[in-house]
Write a structure and sequence with these properties.
Elements: H1 2-5, H2 11-28, H3 30-38, E1 55-56, H4 59-62, E2 74-77, E3 88-91, H5 95-109, E4 116-120, H6 122-125, H7 131-143, E5 149-150, H8 155-168, E6 172-176, H9 178-187, E7 195-199, H10 212-223, E8 229-232, E9 241-243, E10 249-250, E11 255-260, E12 274-281, E13 290-299, E14 305-310
Parallel strand pairs: 1-13, 4-5, 4-6, 6-7, 7-8
Antiparallel strand pairs: 2-3, 8-9, 9-10, 11-12, 12-13, 13-14
């Protein structure tokens, strides 16, 4: 199945494999099966991907969401605030994740070996179980460049490295959490021509939250670049969407995004309507590929999407049949 998923080229292939995986997870995932049963949804009656039930993402906080009986190889955990319940994604075959992010990087950015990868992810490095750190550490290794690496709080060395790579004309990717990138450009100014700046979102309680447009404007000026790239990923997904500017995200061929009605969460909205974000991530073969997230967004006619906010707890309703 892995080979089929990562070689999807056509819409019909995506649909066919999604329905196969739905049947597999309905049969092998006790939590998902119970959820589908509550909604009276059975593979025999589901003919389109829009009809597949999307499991509320909160299940990953309280249940073991598994479609495999194999031993768990990795447990990815969300950061969460102090005292909050964190999500746990139990991964029985980590090669699904590795193939997803490596193929995804190649799909959007071509060969990893062409880049130096610099990472400014202090809050993620300070805890265990981050899927983002797992991915970036492997990208750093796969890049094969001696300057590639993590920079915790050493802004001076990072700034020197960026300037050195710029002078060499080396293609570089700097991936960082929003607050750390802002801290960096407050101390140093850049004029980068060969570097992609990619923010992974979130102030993580270190700074006041600001809208994406303002964040990107500050970073564009500080780094001297015309666009800020973004990564859309989360603990509960093994695939990532990427934005190469303006906060408009694209999915790799094995991932698809829908907007659901906020008042009737079993209804998929037409394109360009704001709603809750549902994700099909076929790399989640051994957990659940059909996830209703807590993000609010809009899906465009060309299948790109935009994230415009999040539900607060009072907005979560309708799909929470078994969460607690």
């Amino acid at each position: 199945m892995q080979t089929k998923v990562f070689n999807i080229k056509l819409e019909e292939e995506f649909t066919k494999i999604s329905l196969e995986i739905f049947k597999h997870q309905f049969t092998n995932n006790k939590i998902y099966r119970s959820f589908c049963d509550l909604l009276y949804k059975h593979p025999s009656s589901v003919k389109t991907i829009e009809e597949i039930p999307f499991l509320p993402i909160e299940f990953f906080k309280t249940k073991e969401v598994l479609s495999s009986k194999d031993n768990v190889q990795e447990i990815f955990t969300s950061s969460g605030t102090t005292g909050s319940v964190t999500s746990k994604h139990l991964v029985t075959d980590v090669s699904w994740y590795e193939k997803s992010y490596l193929n995804g990087f190649k799909h959007f950015y071509k060969n990893i070996e062409d880049y130096t990868i610099l990472a400014l992810l202090p809050n993620y490095l300070e805890r265990k179980g981050s899927s983002l750190i797992y991915m970036v550490a492997d990208l750093i290794e796969k890049s094969g460049k001696k300057e590639s690496g993590f920079y915790l709080d050493d802004f001076y060395t990072l700034a020197e490295t960026l300037d050195y790579l710029e002078q060499k004309g080396q293609k570089t990717l700097l991936i960082g959490v929003s607050f750390a990138l802002l801290d960096l450009v407050e101390e140093y100014g850049f004029s980068l021509k060969n570097t992609i700046i990619m923010e992974t979102g979130g102030m993580k309680g270190r700074r006041k939250e600001i809208i994406r447009k303002e964040l990107h404007s500050i970073l564009q000026k500080g780094f001297g670049v015309s666009e800020i790239h973004s990564e859309y990923g989360m603990t509960e997904l093994l695939s990532q969407g990427y934005s190469r500017g303006n906060g408009i995200f694209e999915c790799p061929p094995w991932m698809k995004v829908f907007a659901r009605d906020t008042e009737d969460p079993l209804t998929i909205l037409p394109k360009e309507k704001v709603g809750g974000i549902n994700v099909i991530d076929l790399a989640n073969y051994n957990s659940c590929s059909f996830i209703a997230t807590q993000d609010l967004g809009k899906v465009y006619k060309n299948e790109t999407f935009e994230i415009i906010g999040r539900f607060d707890n009072s907005d979560l309703r309708g799909c929470n049949l078994m969460v607690y």
